[in-house]
Design brief:
Blueprint lengths: L2 E8 L2 H13 L5 E13 L2 E15 L3 H11 L8 E4 L5 H9 L3
């Protein structure tokens, strides 16, 4: 099993909590961490600085497409960030935790 972290950001903590809850309940993620962040970016030729909630979603690599679809279904942004980061090193115990809590 290959483990990954999938990241997305949300405009509100409530939206992030909703996505996290669905991913955990559907066993698509073993753990979802939420952090409050400040994002600087350009969108449609305008500069923005927004407070957002970052989701770090710990899961199996095989779940990326299902999680991407679920994020797109539940997300309020026109173009949400959905990126996958490979976990190249982790304790065997933590990898077992991810495997045991995801489908």
């Amino acid at each position: 099993m290959k483990a990954v972290i999938i990241q997305t950001t949300c405009a509100s903590k409530e939206e992030a909590q909703k996505i996290a809850k669905v991913l955990i309940e559907q066993k698509l993620a073993a753990c979802v961490q939420l952090s409050q962040i400040e994002s600087f970016y350009t969108w449609k030729d305008e500069f923005y600085c927004d407070n957002e909630t970052l989701l770090n979603i710990k899961t199996r690599k095989a779940n990326f497409e299902k999680i991407k679809s679920k994020i797109l279904e539940l997300h309020s942004y026109d173009l949400p960030e959905i990126i996958q980061l490979d976990i190249t090193n982790a304790s065997e115990e933590y990898l077992k935790f991810i495997k045991g809590n995801t489908i």
